[in-house]
Amino acid sequence: MENCIFCKIMAREIPGHVLYEDEHVLVFLDISQTTKGHTLIVPKAHRTDVFEMAPEEMAQVFSIAPKIATALQKTFNCTGMNIVNNNGSSAGQTVFHYHVHLIPRYNRDEFGIRFINNMEDYDSSDLAALKENIVQNLEA
Ligand code: AMP
Ligand code: ZN
Question: N or C: which end of the chain has fewer CB within 10 A?
Answer without folding.
Answer: C
